[in-house]
Amino acid sequence: MSVNQTTVPDDVSAEPKAPKGDRTDMVGKALGLLVLLGDEPRGASAAEISRRADLPFSTTYRLLGSLTRDGFVDYEPDGRRYHLGLRIFQLGQRVSNHHGFAGTALPVLRRVTEQTGEATILSVRDGHHHLTVNKVDGPQTFRVTSDPGHLGALHATAVGKALVAFAEDAEREALLEELDLEPLTEHTITDRGAFRAEIEKVRRQGYAVMDEENENGMRAVAVPLLNSQGHAFASLATAVPVFRLSIESLLAHVPLLQDAAAELAARLPQR
Predict the structure, then answer these.
(1) 85-134 tens-digit pLDDT
(2) β-pair partners for 219
(3) Mind spelling out the 3-state secondary structure of the chain?
(4) Cα 215 to Cα 210: distance, rounded to the nearest angstrom
(5) What is the pLDDT of residues 182-205, one digit of tens each?
């Protein structure tokens, strides 16, 4: 599949050829910029990326220009912000398909959605975010916006809480201490002690709930997909608008999600 040409800022000049000895280093720097952009779901300016990468602005700007021309990065002229581009998504989908996530999981997600009538989402952890691997929308007109490739907050989502709660002990402790508890709505947990208590609750009950903490008007319930050591390598959620299901009605789907998660855990490659 071809990739459409993306808009490049007008003032990005043609990049001079680097000496052979510098090319490997420049590739590493470019990949580093992609990793940094992966941690910025809302995008970032060239100056912000330059500071985070600890690179000269001119170097960052040239690399971003090259990455934009090749489709790895998108440039938003209005906000002067850069985002991960379509080619990154395409490569991610190929990796997902290669490892069996997309094709293997889809029939199970469809079956869950057929029974709930609501969106079913499969996510994995990507550093301090969750990454939506696959999603099946329900038949209702109100559509959940967490599409495959979406990076979201761990602390404010049901899938994220499940991934944190059932991470390996050392990883869980690090996340509890290091996650940026950014307030996304007035309901987001931003106190570190309260977040720790929430994660302990998720571990006790075996599922996580999000009630308008990530997005006003939406709630979700998620369960972990556990490997043989009892640690989460993915999580599975049902997401609904608040006007359609109460918390009690949403929690009634937990046994269905747990059965589907157990089936997926037996069929999917465990990362």
Answers:
(1) 877 876 766 666 555 676 788 899 999 999 999 999 999 998 899 988 88
(2) 211, 240
(3) CCCCCCCCCCCCCCCCCCCHHHHHHHHHHHHHHHHHHHCCCCCECHHHHHHHHCCCHHHHHHHHHHHHHCCCEEEECCCCEEEECHHHHHHHHHHHHHCCHHHHHHHHHHHHHHHHCCEEEEEEEECCEEEEEEEECCCCCCCCCCCCCCEEECCCCHHHHHHHHCCCHHHHHHHHHHCCCCCCCCCCCCCHHHHHHHHHHHHHHCCEEEECCCCCCEEEEEEEEECCCCCEEEEEEEEEECCCCCHHHHHCCHHHHHHHHHHHHHHCCCC
(4) 9
(5) 999 999 999 999 999 999 999 999
d(CA 252, CA 125): 25
How does strand 232-241 pair with strand 218-226?
antiparallel
Residue 34 backbone class (left: φ over 0; alpha: ψ -120 to 50; beta: rest): alpha
pTM of this structure: 0.69
The structure tokens listed for 60 are: 């960052």
Q: What is the dihedral of CA 35, 39, 45, 48, to 10 degrees?
A: -90
